[in-house]
Amino acid sequence: MRLAVLTCLVALGAFCAPQASAGTKVLVQTRTYDIAGNSGAALIEAMDSKGPKHGFMTHAIAQIAYTVDWKLGVIQDKGSCRIRQANGTLNLFYTFPRVASPATPALTKRWTRFFAGVRAHEETHGRIAREMMRATERSITGLKVADDPYCYKARSEARRRIQAAYAEYEAKQSAFDAREHRDGGHVEHLVAALMKP
Question: How far apart, in whole angstroms, are the C-alpha atoms of residue 165 and residue 170?
């Protein structure tokens, strides 16, 4: 259920405003991987072996990854440069387990509760990523730099602000995971409830 390594791709626009409407676009893709088992313990074991890779040797139950792209519209005026528009695209990639074997009503009920918790965890990561995009857009839209006829300084400052927002929200992602995955935390409770006989 841990957050994947994230990438931030920043494309700074040319000297004209983008044609797309201003603001953040969010594109979501959801993938699943099949697991099978006739008990909660068997399903956990299947996720441990078939889940998305997390590190070199381990697998996560579910995962979110994302990429970020910014297109900036700039205006030059009397030697200064202003970022008039910031169009961001957030690509969210979710990976979830899917039970592909018959299950008893009791196991189905436990799985439904477990999966709702897993989905809520990953969607919280997605919400934090969306907040990052809104904060970044506010931070760079309207940025004005004097004595910058070619917009080099404005672009550099926009990159710095994007990276600062990214670092701030990555810290929030990590703090959320630390709370959820701690001993006795939410994830441990979800797993224990699924594995009940």
Answer: 8
Cβ neighbours around 113 below 10 Å, total: 13
The partner residues of 98 in beta bridges, in order of sequence, read 34
pLDDT score recorded for residue 53: 85
How far is residue 142's CA from residue 121's CA, in Å, rounded to a whole number?
A: 34
Asked whether 11 and 71 are in contact (CB, 8 A), the reply is yes
Which two three-digit tokens encode residue 139?
């931070």
The answer to whether residue 10 scores a pLDDT higher than 50 is: no
Predicted confidence band of residue 21 (pLDDT cuts 50, 70, 90): very low
3-class DSSP state for residue 83?
Answer: strand
The end-to-end CA distance of the chain, in Å, is: 23
Say which residues have a Cβ less than 8 Å from residue 82's Cβ, sequence separation at least 6.
74, 75, 142, 143, 144, 145, 154
| Whole-prediction pTM | 0.85
Neighbouring residues of 36: CB distance < 8 A, sequence distance ≥ 6 = 42, 43, 46, 99, 100, 101
Three-class DSSP category at 71: strand
Could you give the CA distance from residue 112 to residue 57 in angstroms, rounded to a whole number? 28
User: Is 71:16 a contact under the CB 8 Å cutoff?
Assistant: no
